[in-house]
Design goal:
Blueprint: H1 9-18, E1 28-29, E2 32-33, E3 36-37, E4 39-40, E5 49-50, H2 51-67, H3 82-85, H4 87-94, E6 101-104, H5 107-118, E7 127-131, H6 136-148, H7 153-156, E8 157-160, H8 171-180, E9 185-191, H9 203-212, E10 216-220, H10 232-235, E11 239-242, E12 256-260, H11 307-323, H12 325-347, E13 354-355, E14 368-371, H13 376-385, E15 388-389, E16 391-393, E17 397-400, H14 409-428
Length: 429
């Protein structure tokens, strides 16, 4: 997508006027600062509230009030089947078949549950390959899973790090490590997008290499689902998990999604931690011993649906169904391209900051991460005090995430104006 950017408000407003999905901004609620909506660049941490979420929650409260326990079987959306209302939009979102996905629990819980099934180490194959600097939840989950099976994390966990002097990983280096460790490799477990740099990994290539090495492959898509188009069924990882409170705008602690490839759909012998809701629904209320899993991802369910969080999630998923991931991706490329242009214009001239997200737009999501110097904290607080919401990550990175559903090009231009003013103040002090 070739665009010649200009650092002007007229140009930003021109792009906004040409934006085919600009009206969706009105379907989200912006926090206020000094009586005006904030410039919100933190959708990679917590997405904004959809306008429809409140009514969705009220509807379920009314269902509870009217029917009590009978709400499991009565009303417009009986709770007994509520997770099924999420199936089709979730499958479309991640490029899966309907029986390959289910919404349940929360992210790290699901990561542990899926690793119970897909990390099955033995004396020969016991190693896990992951990216260095993965989000701490992934690090802790993988470390404790390895210890649970009696292995030393220092020997069993292989972390792939960027080359010296580089901020992001090269795909060729990931594949080389997989090939090198193939005889002892049990699982390749990567994130889809690195939370720190915004790098989008080559998931098809990683999947192919992991399977060729004789290992299983899983992904944490917390920063990927709702951010980038996915084709999980076609790419073929064994499993994936993601949350819904970032790009999927489903509220703090929102529910998690799970993908289990259909090659595992009818394998009741696959070890798993079972619960009542994963038992075959035709037999569920007979209350008999002997776990018979549902076909596909539903067979990994533990408990019944968290109805209120599911309701907020469904309200957001309807927006994604309306817009489509390809349309969102097209705008995302324009937004991050414009943001990169604005930042480079400032930082090369005024501030000794560095962009650490990939230069290639296809290799990043809707995030640009800035490595700051000793003025970084001061800049972050300056932005916050002026109604610009971004995200600080230790030790000295500011993450900006222009989300295509609700961010505008004028948001980015205004951000540039604040950065320019800050740089002028630093220069004169």
């Amino acid at each position: 997508m070739s665009v010649i950017y200009e650092n002007s408000q007229v140009f930003a407003q021109k792009l906004d006027s040409q934006d085919p999905i600009k009206s969706y901004r009105d379907q989200f609620i912006f926090p206020q600062h000094a009586g005006k909506p904030v410039r919100y660049f933190c959708g990679n941490s917590l997405g904004l509230q959809p306008v429809a979420a409140k009514q969705a929650l009220l509807d379920e409260l009314d269902q509870w009030a009217e029917f009590g326990v009978e709400g499991h079987f009565k009303g417009n959306k009986p709770w007994m089947y509520y997770h099924k209302f999420l199936t089709e939009p979730t499958a479309k979102l991640v490029g899966a078949l309907p029986h390959e996905v289910v919404v349940m629990n929360t992210l790290t819980v699901n990561l542990h549950l899926l690793m119970v099934s897909f990390y099955r180490p033995d004396s020969k194959r016991y190693k896990i390959i992951m990216e260095a600097g993965a989000f701490p939840s992934d690090q802790y989950a993988i470390e404790t899973q390895v210890k649970f099976h009696g292995f030393d994390p220092d020997q069993a966990i292989i972390e792939v790090a960027p080359r010296e002097g580089e901020e992001t990983l090269r795909t060729e280096d990931i594949l080389k490590v997989i090939e090198k460790e193939k005889d002892s490799l049990a699982l390749v477990m990567f994130s889809g997008v690195n939370y720190y740099t915004g790098q989008f990994f080559d998931l098809p290539a990683i999947t192919r290499a992991g399977h060729q090495a004789g290992a299983l492959v899983g992904f944490d898509l917390a920063h990927t689902a709702g951010n980038l188009p996915l084709q999980l069924h076609e790419w073929g990882p064994d499993f994936a998990v993601w949350c819904s409170y970032k790009y999927l705008n489903s509220g703090p602690g929102g529910p998690s999604g799970v993908f289990v490839h259909e090659r595992h759909a009818n394998n009741p012998a696959l070890p798993r931690f079972a619960g009542w809701w994963g038992h075959h629904e035709d037999e569920r209320f007979k209350m008999k011993k002997g776990f018979i899993p549902m076909t596909g991802a539903e067979g990994w369910q533990i408990s019944n649906a968290q109805i209120f969080s599911f309701a907020a999630h469904l309200a957001s998923l309807k927006i994604f169904e309306d817009v489509g991931m390809e349309t969102l991706r097209n705008k995302s490329l324009l937004l991050t391209g414009f943001l990169e242009y604005i930042l480079r214009d400032l930082f090369t001239e005024k501030l000794p900051f560095k962009l650490i997200s990939p230069d290639d737009p296809e290799s990043r999501g809707c995030q640009i991460s800035v490595l700051t110097d000793s003025n970084g904290r001061q800049l972050f607080h300056y932005l916050t005090d002026n109604g610009v919401i971004a995200d600080w990550r230790e030790p000295n990175v500011i993450r900006f995430a222009p989300v295509p559903l609700y961010n505008s090009f004028d948001d980015i231009w205004q951000l540039g104006q604040f950065l320019h003013t800050f740089s002028e103040n630093i220069s004169s002090s």
